[in-house]
Amino acid sequence: MESVQAIKQRFGIIGNSETLNRAIEKAIQVAPTDISVLVTGESGVGKESIPKIIHQLSHRKHNKYIAVNCGAIPEGTIDSELFGHEKGSFTGATQTREGYFEVADGGTIFLDEVGELPLTTQVRLLRVLENGEFIKVGSSKVQKTDVRIVAATNANMFEAIKKEQFREDLYYRLSTVDIHLPPLRERQEDIHLLFRKFASDFALKYKMPTIKLTDDAIQILLKHRWSGNVRQLRNIAEQISVLEQNRTISAETLTGYLPTSGSNLPAVIKHTKSDSDFSSEREILYKVLFDMKSDLNDLKKLTMELMKKGNTKDVEEEHPGLIQKIYGSNDETEDYEEAIEDSKVLSIPEHGKATKEIVNTQDKYHFAEEIQEEETLSLHDKELELIKKSLERHNGKRKLAAEELGISERTLYRKIKQYDL
Asked: With a threshold of 0.90, does the pTM exceed it?
């Protein structure tokens, strides 16, 4: 069995990353068998090297090796390409044609971008994997083939299965052995090495001196995200080799060839929303209305206390929390006190006055009752809905629900009893 280093030299693979070496080791180990292999990894990582290694180290190496890009073949003709067709089976079929599975009998087929296969073709491929049988388009004759299948994809196969774009049974048949190739950003020790190799190759190809990077440029190179992986790095090296007159490349020059987006700096991304996150505009509106109603009720309570006691200082001492909740910070509380002293909106009766005067004074605030009648028409159902949703989100835990709604647990308990929840 050849060593990993010998295989890398033989197939022109550059890099000393541990994850890359592990992928090559798996390819070497699985090559002598006929097990189906699925190669996964992002676009541009070099997935096409793995099936070549597997074929060349297998007992099939003297037979055909065919690479098929499944994403490049139109859906209407892919069955014909893979399995062949009979003369006259469809418009344009002027003669019988052998498909790849028939031509590669005894050899290896590499199905690149296998996730792009139509569902009908996936059914045919599953049959080939299970018993080596296939039927040409337009034929009724079952044919046998002995083909080793190595597939590759850059798609998330579990997502495709979930969306019913790929058959689950076919996935498990293809991925008997799964070989994952890491993206270039996870092989930082290989980035500069690959760049130097590409720069040397292009200098030889275009007969010009080799480009070299300054220390600052090397750091820029290592920090870039490389969304296109090795393919993108190779293209950048070729561009700079051809276009730059100065063969020493500074950080500023290199930055001009890199996309503006693509930094490899860490970022925190929130994928899921919290259960208590009022992302719906309607729920936000309900929440605002609910808070307004709560504040209005507190204001009514404070007004009634003022009317009964007639002494603002006593009310302030007894209800500091309520005043703070309604008027906010200390500055706002001072404004409130000044408003109480200067304003004559509230005519507080003396304790010795007749009950009739108190009734007349209270009549000045009849609008409070009118507001209550109006809000029962608009906010009663909204308040009930908010309480129900909050209790559901917190599995009936009143303390958490009360904190989310901005009311005390006792108030929430009273409302639960009121609404018979």
From this structure: no
